[in-house]
Amino acid sequence: MKKNIEPCYYGDYLQLDKILGAQALQSEKYGEAAHEETLFIIVHQVYELWFKQVLHELNAVIDTFNQDTVEDQQLPEVVLRLQRVISIQRLMNDQIAIMETMTPQQFLSFRDYLVPASGFQSIQFKRLEISLGLKREFRIDFDQQSFYNRLNDKDRALLEGLEKKPSLFELVDKWLSRMPLLKMEDFDFWEYYQNAADKMLQDDYDTIASNEMLSDIEMRQELKDWQATKDNFDALFEHDQFEALRDEGKFRLSHNALLSALFIKQYSEEPVFNLPFQLITALTEIDEQLTIWRYRHAMMVQRMLGTKIGTGGSSGHHYLKKTTESNRIYLDFFNMATFLLPKNALPELPESVKRKLGF
Which end of the chain has fewer CB within 10 Å, C or N? Predict the structure, then answer.
């Protein structure tokens, strides 16, 4: 590393003149400045700076996975970058509390001057969603119909181009699908797993059927839920049945990717699975933190605006609340807990297999 020749001055390096001079209040154009508008601007500017850093990390991870082979030596850095994203997300979630120090009336003192500006127009946030895997076809109906309507031509073209590129979800799906974990030598994990799963499901059925505390209506509902769970289990072992459920939106991961992820989670203590397990866990956490951010944002909007429409023309709180559960990306990793078996129900891996999963 070369030594710097010219002295570096703190304010010049950070370009503080630009950053600290970038808070232009709309309210000043129409009369007396609204005191809280400065807070509103700074909070959103800080969000955009963090979005930039998150995109910087995600793009590096996407570049790593966007190749035919991902080397084991690359995974520690990938996991580190995803964990950094999670730390930033937690900070962004906490930042909402600063916004909530503003009262609804204080917000209303300048809110109407912002129309039609809206969070819909945060291109970096849209890039973040698309890069993670929330592409147009997976959005709620309102987003599918009006996702690009509020953007200028340049921003619309940028996002439409990004939609055509592989997302992190798609690349991780391909990576998991390539893992040769489904059958090794004379050991067929899935045959053993199916028998153990069938026994667990039968035990659950017997527990429900023998529960005298349930009414007829409750019994029917419990058995209906049990049947839905059994159908999902059955789909793990039947490709066509799995694809049918996938077409219905019950799964998003491909069949092989889901099986590989499940095997990794079942035997996460095996050395070769440790980093893939951390990767799956990190993506799950990123989706969870994004969902928490959406929820807290929705609660804040309801607190500030009640049932008023948003400045961008959406239904405000109702729209944001709907995106909280609907615009999920890595939901399959959450639901995978459905298929996990207790450690004592898992088969002991043969030594030949354990050697392959060790170092």
Answer: N
Q: How far apart are CA 186 and CA 64, in angstroms?
A: 33
Sign of CA pseudo-dihedral 180, 172, 64, 267: negative
Amino acid at 73: Q
pLDDT in tens, 214-228: 999 999 999 999 999
- Check pLDDT > 50 for residue 313: no
φ and ψ at residue 21, rounded to 5 degrees: -100, 15
Are the C-beta atoms of 49 and 24 separated by less than 8 Å? no
Give dist(CA 156, CA 258) in Å, integer.
33
CB of 350 closer than 8 Å to CB of 187? yes
- How far, in Å, CA of 296 to CA of 293, rounded? 5
pTM equals: 0.89
Adjacent-strand bridge partners of 184? 187
Tell me, what's the pLDDT at 4? 80
pLDDT band at 317 (very low <50, low <70, confident <90, very high): low
> Tokens in use for 75?
């995974």
Best CA proximity match to 131, nearest among 161, 91, 166, 157:
166
In sequence order, what are the residues at sequence separation of 6 or more whose Cβ sits closer than 8 angstroms to the Cβ of residue 182?
Answer: 189, 190, 256, 259, 260, 263
